[in-house]
Amino acid sequence: MNRRNFLTAGAVASSAMALGVVGVASSCHADSKSTIDAVANMSRRTLGSGAHSIAVSAIGLGCMGMSYHRSFVPDKQAMISVIRNGADLGLNFFDTAEAYGPFVNESLVGEALKPIRKDITLATKFGFKGGKPSVGLDSRPERIRKVVEESLGRLQTDYIDLLYQHRIDPTIPIEDVAGTVKDLIAEGKVKHFGMSETDFSLTQDGLSLIRKAHAIQPVTAIQSEYSIMTRQPESEVLALCEELGIGFVPYSPLSRGLITGYINERTKYIPTNDNRPTLPRYQPEAILANWPMLDVLKEFGDQKGLTIAQVALAWLLAQKPFVVPIPGTTKLAHLQENLQAANYKFDADELAKLTADLSAIEIVGDRFS
Protein backbone atom coordinates (compact mmCIF):
# COMPACT_ATOMS: atom_id res chain seq x y z
CA MET A 1 0.00 0.00 0.00
CA ASN A 2 1.55 3.33 -1.06
CA ARG A 3 1.52 6.50 1.04
CA ARG A 4 -1.64 7.89 -0.58
CA ASN A 5 -3.61 4.67 -0.04
CA PHE A 6 -2.27 4.28 3.48
CA LEU A 7 -3.37 7.80 4.44
CA THR A 8 -6.66 7.37 2.64
CA ALA A 9 -7.37 4.09 4.41
CA GLY A 10 -6.88 5.73 7.79
CA ALA A 11 -8.96 8.75 6.86
CA VAL A 12 -11.78 6.63 5.44
CA ALA A 13 -11.86 4.35 8.45
CA SER A 14 -11.87 7.19 10.96
CA SER A 15 -14.52 9.18 9.11
CA ALA A 16 -16.74 6.13 8.70
CA MET A 17 -16.63 5.31 12.40
CA ALA A 18 -17.11 8.92 13.48
CA LEU A 19 -19.72 9.98 10.96
CA GLY A 20 -21.41 6.94 9.49
CA VAL A 21 -20.96 8.63 6.10
CA VAL A 22 -22.98 7.17 3.25
CA GLY A 23 -21.03 4.84 1.00
CA VAL A 24 -18.25 4.24 3.55
CA ALA A 25 -18.09 1.00 5.46
CA SER A 26 -17.97 1.23 9.25
CA SER A 27 -14.77 -0.83 9.26
CA CYS A 28 -12.12 -1.82 6.71
CA HIS A 29 -12.44 -5.58 6.10
CA ALA A 30 -12.78 -7.49 2.83
CA ASP A 31 -14.27 -4.59 0.92
CA SER A 32 -11.83 -1.95 2.20
CA LYS A 33 -9.90 -1.69 -1.08
CA SER A 34 -12.99 -0.83 -3.10
CA THR A 35 -14.00 1.70 -0.45
CA ILE A 36 -10.57 3.33 -0.53
CA ASP A 37 -10.55 3.45 -4.32
CA ALA A 38 -14.04 4.96 -4.41
CA VAL A 39 -12.94 7.82 -2.17
CA ALA A 40 -9.41 8.36 -3.47
CA ASN A 41 -10.60 8.34 -7.09
CA MET A 42 -13.64 10.51 -6.59
CA SER A 43 -15.53 11.59 -9.67
CA ARG A 44 -14.16 14.37 -11.84
CA ARG A 45 -15.93 17.23 -13.59
CA THR A 46 -14.84 19.63 -16.29
CA LEU A 47 -14.73 23.41 -15.97
CA GLY A 48 -14.63 25.20 -19.29
CA SER A 49 -14.37 23.68 -22.75
CA GLY A 50 -11.78 22.72 -25.32
CA ALA A 51 -8.29 24.05 -24.77
CA HIS A 52 -9.63 26.19 -21.92
CA SER A 53 -10.97 23.33 -19.82
CA ILE A 54 -9.77 21.88 -16.52
CA ALA A 55 -10.63 18.46 -15.09
CA VAL A 56 -11.19 18.83 -11.35
CA SER A 57 -12.64 16.83 -8.48
CA ALA A 58 -16.43 17.07 -8.34
CA ILE A 59 -16.10 18.97 -5.07
CA GLY A 60 -13.29 21.41 -4.32
CA LEU A 61 -12.08 23.12 -1.16
CA GLY A 62 -12.58 26.80 -0.39
CA CYS A 63 -9.64 27.62 1.86
CA MET A 64 -10.62 31.15 2.94
CA GLY A 65 -12.03 30.21 6.35
CA MET A 66 -8.75 28.63 7.39
CA SER A 67 -7.40 32.11 8.07
CA TYR A 68 -10.01 34.76 7.29
CA HIS A 69 -13.60 35.85 7.94
CA ARG A 70 -14.71 32.92 10.10
CA SER A 71 -14.08 34.35 13.60
CA PHE A 72 -11.45 31.93 14.98
CA VAL A 73 -8.16 31.29 13.17
CA PRO A 74 -7.15 27.63 13.52
CA ASP A 75 -3.63 26.34 14.07
CA LYS A 76 -1.66 26.63 10.83
CA GLN A 77 -0.21 23.13 10.91
CA ALA A 78 -3.66 21.66 11.52
CA MET A 79 -4.94 23.42 8.39
CA ILE A 80 -1.99 22.22 6.33
CA SER A 81 -2.87 18.72 7.48
CA VAL A 82 -6.52 19.15 6.42
CA ILE A 83 -5.48 20.38 2.96
CA ARG A 84 -3.01 17.54 2.41
CA ASN A 85 -5.44 14.92 3.68
CA GLY A 86 -8.00 16.30 1.25
CA ALA A 87 -5.56 15.73 -1.60
CA ASP A 88 -4.96 12.18 -0.37
CA LEU A 89 -8.72 11.63 -0.55
CA GLY A 90 -8.80 12.64 -4.21
CA LEU A 91 -9.64 16.35 -3.89
CA ASN A 92 -7.57 18.29 -6.41
CA PHE A 93 -9.24 21.73 -6.65
CA PHE A 94 -8.20 24.37 -4.10
CA ASP A 95 -9.42 27.97 -3.96
CA THR A 96 -7.83 31.02 -2.33
CA ALA A 97 -7.32 34.77 -3.01
CA GLU A 98 -4.96 37.60 -2.18
CA ALA A 99 -7.83 39.29 -0.33
CA TYR A 100 -8.17 36.47 2.20
CA GLY A 101 -6.23 37.92 5.12
CA PRO A 102 -5.11 39.68 3.03
CA PHE A 103 -2.28 37.50 1.74
CA VAL A 104 -2.00 35.02 4.63
CA ASN A 105 -4.36 32.46 3.09
CA GLU A 106 -2.35 32.26 -0.11
CA SER A 107 0.78 31.66 1.96
CA LEU A 108 -0.93 28.89 3.92
CA VAL A 109 -2.25 27.20 0.78
CA GLY A 110 1.07 27.55 -1.02
CA GLU A 111 2.97 25.87 1.82
CA ALA A 112 0.43 23.07 2.12
CA LEU A 113 0.34 22.25 -1.59
CA LYS A 114 3.99 22.76 -2.53
CA PRO A 115 4.88 19.03 -2.26
CA ILE A 116 2.03 18.05 -4.61
CA ARG A 117 1.77 21.17 -6.77
CA LYS A 118 1.79 19.31 -10.09
CA ASP A 119 -1.09 17.09 -9.01
CA ILE A 120 -3.63 19.78 -8.16
CA THR A 121 -5.55 22.73 -9.63
CA LEU A 122 -4.93 25.99 -7.80
CA ALA A 123 -7.22 29.01 -8.09
CA THR A 124 -6.67 32.51 -6.78
CA LYS A 125 -8.04 36.00 -7.45
CA PHE A 126 -7.21 39.67 -7.99
CA GLY A 127 -9.34 42.79 -7.91
CA PHE A 128 -8.90 44.94 -4.78
CA LYS A 129 -6.67 47.85 -3.83
CA GLY A 130 -3.83 46.48 -1.76
CA GLY A 131 -5.72 43.20 -1.55
CA LYS A 132 -8.25 44.79 0.83
CA PRO A 133 -11.94 44.74 -0.17
CA SER A 134 -12.67 47.54 2.30
CA VAL A 135 -10.36 49.91 0.42
CA GLY A 136 -11.93 49.49 -3.01
CA LEU A 137 -11.70 47.83 -6.40
CA ASP A 138 -8.63 47.81 -8.63
CA SER A 139 -8.40 45.79 -11.85
CA ARG A 140 -6.00 48.04 -13.72
CA PRO A 141 -3.73 45.95 -15.97
CA GLU A 142 -0.63 46.99 -14.02
CA ARG A 143 -2.32 45.99 -10.77
CA ILE A 144 -3.30 42.59 -12.18
CA ARG A 145 0.31 41.93 -13.16
CA LYS A 146 1.57 43.00 -9.74
CA VAL A 147 -0.92 40.76 -7.96
CA VAL A 148 0.03 37.76 -10.08
CA GLU A 149 3.73 38.18 -9.33
CA GLU A 150 3.07 38.50 -5.61
CA SER A 151 0.62 35.60 -5.58
CA LEU A 152 3.10 33.35 -7.36
CA GLY A 153 5.59 34.05 -4.59
CA ARG A 154 3.15 33.37 -1.76
CA LEU A 155 1.79 30.25 -3.45
CA GLN A 156 5.35 28.98 -4.05
CA THR A 157 4.63 28.16 -7.67
CA ASP A 158 5.48 29.44 -11.13
CA TYR A 159 1.95 29.32 -12.54
CA ILE A 160 -1.67 29.79 -11.45
CA ASP A 161 -4.13 27.28 -12.86
CA LEU A 162 -7.23 29.49 -12.61
CA LEU A 163 -7.04 33.25 -12.10
CA TYR A 164 -10.32 35.01 -11.27
CA GLN A 165 -11.24 38.65 -11.33
CA HIS A 166 -12.63 38.78 -7.78
CA ARG A 167 -15.16 41.55 -8.42
CA ILE A 168 -16.03 43.70 -11.42
CA ASP A 169 -14.22 47.04 -11.47
CA PRO A 170 -16.60 49.44 -13.27
CA THR A 171 -13.76 51.86 -14.02
CA ILE A 172 -11.82 49.34 -16.12
CA PRO A 173 -13.22 47.93 -19.39
CA ILE A 174 -13.67 44.20 -19.06
CA GLU A 175 -11.89 43.81 -22.40
CA ASP A 176 -8.74 45.27 -20.78
CA VAL A 177 -9.02 42.85 -17.87
CA ALA A 178 -9.49 39.83 -20.14
CA GLY A 179 -6.71 41.03 -22.44
CA THR A 180 -4.26 41.33 -19.56
CA VAL A 181 -5.05 37.81 -18.38
CA LYS A 182 -4.70 36.59 -21.97
CA ASP A 183 -1.19 38.04 -22.05
CA LEU A 184 -0.34 36.36 -18.74
CA ILE A 185 -1.57 33.06 -20.17
CA ALA A 186 0.67 33.53 -23.21
CA GLU A 187 3.59 34.12 -20.81
CA GLY A 188 2.86 30.88 -18.95
CA LYS A 189 2.16 32.55 -15.60
CA VAL A 190 -1.56 31.75 -15.74
CA LYS A 191 -3.33 28.77 -17.32
CA HIS A 192 -7.01 29.78 -17.30
CA PHE A 193 -9.26 32.81 -16.75
CA GLY A 194 -12.21 33.04 -14.38
CA MET A 195 -14.68 35.68 -13.22
CA SER A 196 -16.22 35.95 -9.75
CA GLU A 197 -19.64 37.36 -8.83
CA THR A 198 -20.03 38.72 -12.35
CA ASP A 199 -23.64 37.62 -12.52
CA PHE A 200 -24.38 39.64 -9.36
CA SER A 201 -22.71 42.82 -10.65
CA LEU A 202 -24.62 45.84 -9.37
CA THR A 203 -23.05 48.35 -11.73
CA GLN A 204 -23.30 46.70 -15.14
CA ASP A 205 -25.09 43.86 -16.90
CA GLY A 206 -23.15 40.85 -15.63
CA LEU A 207 -24.18 38.55 -18.48
CA SER A 208 -23.01 41.08 -21.04
CA LEU A 209 -19.68 41.39 -19.23
CA ILE A 210 -19.18 37.64 -19.35
CA ARG A 211 -19.82 37.61 -23.10
CA LYS A 212 -17.42 40.52 -23.71
CA ALA A 213 -14.66 38.95 -21.62
CA HIS A 214 -15.19 35.53 -23.19
CA ALA A 215 -14.74 37.01 -26.66
CA ILE A 216 -11.25 38.25 -25.69
CA GLN A 217 -10.08 35.35 -23.52
CA PRO A 218 -12.34 32.30 -23.13
CA VAL A 219 -13.61 32.07 -19.58
CA THR A 220 -13.07 28.72 -17.88
CA ALA A 221 -15.24 29.29 -14.80
CA ILE A 222 -17.66 31.69 -13.17
CA GLN A 223 -17.54 31.68 -9.37
CA SER A 224 -20.54 33.00 -7.48
CA GLU A 225 -22.54 32.26 -4.37
CA TYR A 226 -24.99 29.45 -5.06
CA SER A 227 -26.77 27.18 -2.62
CA ILE A 228 -30.26 26.03 -1.75
CA MET A 229 -30.63 29.42 -0.02
CA THR A 230 -29.07 31.53 -2.79
CA ARG A 231 -30.48 30.42 -6.12
CA GLN A 232 -30.21 33.57 -8.26
CA PRO A 233 -27.70 31.98 -10.68
CA GLU A 234 -30.46 29.66 -11.87
CA SER A 235 -32.33 32.51 -13.52
CA GLU A 236 -29.86 33.19 -16.34
CA VAL A 237 -26.19 32.62 -15.64
CA LEU A 238 -26.25 28.80 -15.63
CA ALA A 239 -27.87 28.87 -19.06
CA LEU A 240 -25.20 31.27 -20.30
CA CYS A 241 -22.45 29.01 -18.92
CA GLU A 242 -24.02 26.07 -20.74
CA GLU A 243 -24.24 28.06 -23.96
CA LEU A 244 -20.62 29.28 -23.85
CA GLY A 245 -19.05 26.16 -22.35
CA ILE A 246 -18.08 27.80 -19.04
CA GLY A 247 -17.93 25.98 -15.71
CA PHE A 248 -19.72 27.24 -12.62
CA VAL A 249 -18.12 27.18 -9.16
CA PRO A 250 -20.50 27.83 -6.25
CA TYR A 251 -18.85 29.37 -3.22
CA SER A 252 -20.59 29.23 0.17
CA PRO A 253 -22.59 26.20 -1.04
CA LEU A 254 -23.45 25.54 2.62
CA SER A 255 -24.23 29.22 3.33
CA ARG A 256 -21.25 29.84 5.63
CA GLY A 257 -22.27 27.03 7.97
CA LEU A 258 -25.92 28.05 8.16
CA ILE A 259 -27.32 25.18 6.08
CA THR A 260 -25.55 22.54 8.18
CA GLY A 261 -26.83 23.86 11.51
CA TYR A 262 -23.23 24.46 12.59
CA ILE A 263 -24.24 28.02 13.40
CA ASN A 264 -27.59 29.07 14.86
CA GLU A 265 -29.35 32.09 16.35
CA ARG A 266 -27.15 31.92 19.47
CA THR A 267 -23.80 31.79 17.67
CA LYS A 268 -21.27 34.40 18.83
CA TYR A 269 -18.93 35.85 16.22
CA ILE A 270 -15.68 37.77 16.41
CA PRO A 271 -16.69 40.76 14.27
CA THR A 272 -13.10 41.80 13.51
CA ASN A 273 -12.66 38.55 11.57
CA ASP A 274 -16.15 37.62 10.39
CA ASN A 275 -18.54 39.17 7.89
CA ARG A 276 -21.60 37.19 8.98
CA PRO A 277 -22.71 39.64 11.71
CA THR A 278 -23.21 42.25 8.97
CA LEU A 279 -25.27 40.00 6.67
CA PRO A 280 -29.09 40.14 6.97
CA ARG A 281 -29.52 36.39 6.52
CA TYR A 282 -27.37 35.65 9.57
CA GLN A 283 -29.31 37.75 12.05
CA PRO A 284 -30.95 35.63 14.78
CA GLU A 285 -34.51 36.26 13.63
CA ALA A 286 -33.63 35.37 10.01
CA ILE A 287 -31.86 32.16 11.05
CA LEU A 288 -34.94 31.03 12.95
CA ALA A 289 -37.24 31.96 10.07
CA ASN A 290 -35.12 29.98 7.60
CA TRP A 291 -34.77 26.87 9.77
CA PRO A 292 -37.54 24.97 7.89
CA MET A 293 -35.01 24.63 5.05
CA LEU A 294 -32.84 22.51 7.32
CA ASP A 295 -35.83 20.43 8.34
CA VAL A 296 -36.51 19.55 4.69
CA LEU A 297 -32.88 18.53 4.15
CA LYS A 298 -32.82 16.50 7.35
CA GLU A 299 -35.99 14.63 6.48
CA PHE A 300 -34.56 13.65 3.09
CA GLY A 301 -31.16 12.77 4.50
CA ASP A 302 -32.59 10.64 7.30
CA GLN A 303 -34.20 8.40 4.69
CA LYS A 304 -31.08 8.11 2.54
CA GLY A 305 -28.33 7.87 5.15
CA LEU A 306 -27.06 11.36 4.29
CA THR A 307 -26.21 14.34 6.45
CA ILE A 308 -27.78 17.74 5.83
CA ALA A 309 -24.55 18.99 4.25
CA GLN A 310 -24.39 16.01 1.92
CA VAL A 311 -27.96 16.52 0.72
CA ALA A 312 -27.29 20.21 0.05
CA LEU A 313 -24.09 19.50 -1.90
CA ALA A 314 -25.54 16.56 -3.82
CA TRP A 315 -28.48 18.76 -4.81
CA LEU A 316 -26.08 21.36 -6.24
CA LEU A 317 -24.14 18.73 -8.15
CA ALA A 318 -27.41 17.49 -9.66
CA GLN A 319 -28.25 20.88 -11.19
CA LYS A 320 -25.69 20.87 -14.00
CA PRO A 321 -22.72 18.61 -14.86
CA PHE A 322 -20.40 21.62 -14.97
CA VAL A 323 -21.20 22.76 -11.41
CA VAL A 324 -18.29 22.25 -8.96
CA PRO A 325 -19.00 23.53 -5.42
CA ILE A 326 -16.13 24.55 -3.14
CA PRO A 327 -17.37 24.25 0.46
CA GLY A 328 -14.95 25.55 3.05
CA THR A 329 -14.11 23.81 6.28
CA THR A 330 -11.43 23.72 8.95
CA LYS A 331 -12.16 20.15 10.02
CA LEU A 332 -11.07 16.92 8.35
CA ALA A 333 -14.24 15.11 9.43
CA HIS A 334 -16.38 17.72 7.66
CA LEU A 335 -14.14 17.58 4.59
CA GLN A 336 -14.59 13.81 4.36
CA GLU A 337 -18.32 14.24 4.82
CA ASN A 338 -18.49 16.84 2.04
CA LEU A 339 -16.52 14.76 -0.45
CA GLN A 340 -18.83 11.80 0.03
CA ALA A 341 -21.74 13.91 -1.27
CA ALA A 342 -20.37 13.39 -4.80
CA ASN A 343 -21.28 9.70 -4.56
CA TYR A 344 -25.01 10.24 -4.19
CA LYS A 345 -27.11 10.23 -7.36
CA PHE A 346 -30.73 11.39 -7.28
CA ASP A 347 -33.37 9.75 -9.38
CA ALA A 348 -35.52 12.20 -11.32
CA ASP A 349 -38.59 11.95 -9.11
CA GLU A 350 -36.84 12.44 -5.78
CA LEU A 351 -34.82 15.37 -7.15
CA ALA A 352 -38.00 17.04 -8.41
CA LYS A 353 -39.74 16.45 -5.07
CA LEU A 354 -36.83 17.79 -3.01
CA THR A 355 -36.48 20.84 -5.26
CA ALA A 356 -40.20 21.57 -4.99
CA ASP A 357 -40.08 21.28 -1.21
CA LEU A 358 -37.11 23.64 -1.03
CA SER A 359 -38.65 26.11 -3.47
CA ALA A 360 -41.80 26.34 -1.35
CA ILE A 361 -39.82 27.91 1.51
CA GLU A 362 -39.43 31.70 1.34
CA ILE A 363 -35.92 32.72 2.37
CA VAL A 364 -35.80 35.56 4.89
CA GLY A 365 -32.93 38.05 4.72
CA ASP A 366 -30.78 39.13 1.79
CA ARG A 367 -27.37 37.51 1.34
CA PHE A 368 -25.71 40.96 1.58
CA SER A 369 -26.84 44.24 3.09
Tell me what you see in this structure:
The chain is built from twelve helices and nine strands. The protein has 369 residues and is of the alpha/beta class. It has a seven-stranded parallel beta sheet with strand order 3-4-5-6-7-8-9, with helices on one face. Helix 9 (284-304) crosses helix 10. The N and C termini lie far apart (52 Å). The relative contact order is 0.14. Mean pLDDT is 90; it is low at 1-40.
Quick take:
The protein is of the alpha/beta class.
The count of helical stretches stands at 12
Shape: globular
Strand content: 5-15%
Give helix and strand order, one letter per element, not per position. Answer: HHEEEHEHEHEHEHEHEHHHH
Which fold does the CATH topology of the largest domain refer to? TIM Barrel
By CATH's scheme, which homologous superfamily of the largest domain applies?
NADP-dependent oxidoreductase domain
Compute the CA-based radius of gyration: 20 Å
Kindly report the average pLDDT value.
90
CATH first level of the largest domain: which class? Alpha Beta
Q: How far apart are the first and last residues' alpha carbons, in Å?
A: 52 Å
- Uncertain spans, ≥5 residues at pLDDT below 50? 1-40
Question: Major beta sheet, specifics?
Answer: 7 strands, parallel
Counting structural domains, the number is 2
Structural class: alpha/beta
- Give me the count of strands: 9
Spatially, the strands of the biggest sheet line up as 3-4-5-6-7-8-9
Assign a percent range to the helix content: 40-55%
Give the second-level CATH assignment, the architecture of the largest domain: Alpha-Beta Barrel
